[in-house]
Design goal:
This protein is α+β, with helices and mostly antiparallel strands and 337 residues long. Helices cover 34% and strands 23% of the residues. It is built from 10 helices and 10 strands. Strands 6-8-5-9-7-10 form a 6-stranded mixed beta sheet. Strands 1-4-2-3 form a 4-stranded mixed beta sheet, with helices on one face. It is globular, with a radius of gyration of 21 Å.
Length: 337
């Protein structure tokens, strides 16, 4: 891993000095863990706590794909951290630190970088994180930010995608479709009352992964993943790796009041919520006998959970309406390629 201070954007020494000064001014104060070596070395030195394993994930966000050029920079930074926290939470892991790669467009002001780092600092405090290292460059294209996040689990209590069993209940945390509807509002493809619109756009700018639920997941779930590309598309990964079929009940799809005020609660609206993506909630399967324990964990962590279906013998994902009819859509979520 390359430390943030070790790769000059421009060859000239004065330009390199400006870059190092920028890093020292904005990024070095975020390197609070001793493993970061104050961002003065070629790599970090991380020793996990005895009896724990490291869990490592990586997500990148790009302007025009995951955020808009007009989005506040502090919220862009917080979104970057949160989409990675979401991955770790779905594995039952506690976040520890992260490596960061930033590609700021030519002409980015010092104030914009400061705002970006302000967002990082805010969520470092929220999730107990430290910057450990990374790289910073200038680009002549749109902004791209990448984060490699490291978390820990006790022993090997890692909740994989592989493990859903016939007879399991299928659960999801939180509500679905809010971020997608927020983006639709920002792009003027939807309307909503002012208060609902504000809540939905906020969910697009700033995901709220169910962080507090991660500590309970390993003792409950047979399989889990975070919902990022759309519930139905991500459910397909659980089905494929588990060699099972997931039957999703459309009427059970959890919707927020803000979403309903904008899109309604028709079957079409629920399918939109189940395929929009950017939800950053946890989809997991658990034994039917564990229903009371799932609800108890939800209460203890103050996390909304909804049983949305069952795991069966078979393959793939099917969506059933209130009459038991198959209403599985052709498009199940977002894909980059």
């Amino acid at each position: 891993m390359i430390s943030l201070g070790l790769r000059p954007v421009m060859a000239r020494s004065k330009a390199a000095s400006r870059e190092f000064a920028l890093i020292a001014r904005h990024f070095a104060p975020l390197a609070t863990h001793r493993a970061a070596l104050a961002l003065r070395d070629d790599a970090a030195l991380l020793v996990p706590e005895k009896g724990h394993s490291l869990v490592i994930t990586k997500d990148a966000i790009a302007e025009g794909v995951h955020f808009l050029a007009s989005d506040p920079m502090d919220l862009v930074a917080r979104k970057l951290l949160r989409v990675n926290v979401s991955d770790l939470a779905a594995k039952g892991a506690k976040p520890l630190g992260y490596f960061l790669a930033t590609a700021f467009p030519d002409g980015t002001t010092d104030q914009a970088v400061a705002m970006f780092c302000k967002g990082l600092k805010a969520d470092q405090k929220t999730y107990g994180l430290s910057l450990l290292g990374g790289d910073t460059i200038r680009t002549f294209g749109p902004a791209v930010f990448s984060c490699t996040m490291i978390g820990t689990v006790a022993g090997r209590r890692f909740v994989s995608r592989n493990g859903a069993k016939p007879g399991d209940d299928l659960w999801v945390t939180g509500t679905l479709g809010d971020s997608g509807q927020g983006l639709a509002l920002l792009q003027q493809r939807a309307t909503a009352p002012e208060k609902a619109a504000s809540a939905l756009m906020r969910r697009y700018w700033l995901p709220s992964p169910p962080f507090s639920f991660h500590a309970h997941l390993a003792g409950l779930a047979h399989a889990a993943l975070d919902v990022s590309d759309g519930l139905l598309q991500d459910a397909g990964h659980l089905a494929e790796l588990g060699g099972v079929q997931l039957a999703v009940r459309l009427e059970a799809i959890p919707l927020s009041s803000a979403f309903v005020k904008s899109a309604g609660r028709s079957n079409a609206a629920k399918l939109t919520a189940a395929t929009s993506g950017d939800d950053y909630q946890i989809l997991f399967s658990a034994p039917a006998a564990a229903r009371e324990r799932v609800q108890a964990a939800a209460r203890a962590s103050r996390t909304k959970v909804t049983c949305i279906g069952t795991v069966k013998k078979g393959r793939g994902v099917i969506v059933l309406d209130a009459h038991g009819l198959d209403v599985t859509p052709e498009r199940t979520g977002y894909t980059h390629f």
